[in-house]
Amino acid sequence: MQDKTDTRAAGASRPAEDLPYRVDLWRADGENGVERVLARAASMPLARAIFKAAQGEHPDRRITLSKGNRILSDSAE
To answer: Is residue 25 classed as helix, strand or coil in its secondary structure?
Structure first.
Protein backbone atom coordinates (compact mmCIF):
# COMPACT_ATOMS: atom_id res chain seq x y z
CA MET A 1 0.00 0.00 0.00
CA GLN A 2 1.35 3.43 -0.97
CA ASP A 3 1.88 6.01 1.78
CA LYS A 4 -0.05 9.16 0.86
CA THR A 5 0.91 11.23 3.90
CA ASP A 6 3.79 13.03 2.18
CA THR A 7 2.41 14.85 -0.88
CA ARG A 8 5.03 17.61 -1.04
CA ALA A 9 6.66 18.30 -4.39
CA ALA A 10 10.42 18.10 -4.66
CA GLY A 11 11.92 21.15 -2.98
CA ALA A 12 8.65 22.11 -1.28
CA SER A 13 10.31 22.05 2.12
CA ARG A 14 12.52 25.01 1.16
CA PRO A 15 11.93 28.07 3.31
CA ALA A 16 10.04 30.73 1.33
CA GLU A 17 12.87 33.20 1.87
CA ASP A 18 15.17 30.91 -0.15
CA LEU A 19 12.99 31.02 -3.28
CA PRO A 20 14.69 33.23 -5.87
CA TYR A 21 11.73 35.14 -7.35
CA ARG A 22 9.60 37.63 -5.43
CA VAL A 23 6.40 39.50 -6.34
CA ASP A 24 5.93 42.72 -4.34
CA LEU A 25 2.97 45.05 -3.86
CA TRP A 26 4.14 48.65 -3.41
CA ARG A 27 2.58 51.21 -1.09
CA ALA A 28 -0.47 53.01 -2.48
CA ASP A 29 0.02 56.23 -0.50
CA GLY A 30 2.74 57.54 -2.81
CA GLU A 31 5.53 56.72 -0.39
CA ASN A 32 8.37 54.62 -1.70
CA GLY A 33 8.58 51.12 -0.39
CA VAL A 34 7.06 47.71 -0.53
CA GLU A 35 3.82 47.24 1.38
CA ARG A 36 4.07 43.46 1.31
CA VAL A 37 5.52 40.48 -0.47
CA LEU A 38 2.63 38.86 -2.33
CA ALA A 39 4.49 35.68 -3.26
CA ARG A 40 7.79 33.93 -3.74
CA ALA A 41 8.43 31.38 -6.47
CA ALA A 42 11.02 28.81 -7.44
CA SER A 43 10.75 29.27 -11.21
CA MET A 44 10.43 32.15 -13.65
CA PRO A 45 7.28 30.80 -15.39
CA LEU A 46 5.50 30.50 -12.05
CA ALA A 47 6.72 33.94 -10.93
CA ARG A 48 5.46 35.53 -14.18
CA ALA A 49 2.04 33.89 -13.75
CA ILE A 50 1.81 35.21 -10.18
CA PHE A 51 2.91 38.68 -11.36
CA LYS A 52 0.18 38.76 -14.03
CA ALA A 53 -2.45 37.57 -11.54
CA ALA A 54 -1.36 40.24 -9.05
CA GLN A 55 -1.73 42.91 -11.74
CA GLY A 56 -5.30 41.75 -12.30
CA GLU A 57 -6.11 41.88 -8.59
CA HIS A 58 -4.41 45.25 -8.01
CA PRO A 59 -4.78 47.14 -11.33
CA ASP A 60 -4.04 50.57 -9.86
CA ARG A 61 -1.04 49.52 -7.79
CA ARG A 62 2.62 49.06 -8.57
CA ILE A 63 3.64 45.40 -8.68
CA THR A 64 7.21 44.23 -9.24
CA LEU A 65 8.77 40.89 -10.02
CA SER A 66 12.32 40.58 -8.72
CA LYS A 67 15.15 38.13 -8.47
CA GLY A 68 17.51 39.19 -5.73
CA ASN A 69 18.02 42.95 -6.04
CA ARG A 70 17.15 42.99 -9.75
CA ILE A 71 13.65 44.03 -10.86
CA LEU A 72 12.64 41.88 -13.84
CA SER A 73 9.14 43.30 -14.41
CA ASP A 74 7.45 46.45 -13.14
CA SER A 75 3.77 47.27 -13.68
CA ALA A 76 4.57 50.99 -13.39
CA GLU A 77 6.55 50.95 -16.66
So the answer is: strand
> What's the CA gap between 16 and 39, in Å, rounded?
9
Residue 60 maps to a domain: yes
State how many domains the chain has.
Answer: 1
Q: Which domain does 42 fall in, by range?
A: 19-74
Q: Which residues contact 2 (CB under 8 A, 6 or more apart)?
A: none
pTM across the whole model: 0.77
pLDDT digits (tens, 9 = 90+) for 3-37: 444 444 555 666 767 899 999 999 998 788 999 99
The answer to whether residue 6 sits within a structural domain is no
Measuring CA to CA, which residue among 69, 64, 73, 60 is closest to residue 30? 60
63 in Cβ contact with 22 (< 8 Å): no
Q: In whole angstroms, how far apart are CA 75 and each of 13, 15, 25, 52?
A: 30, 27, 10, 9
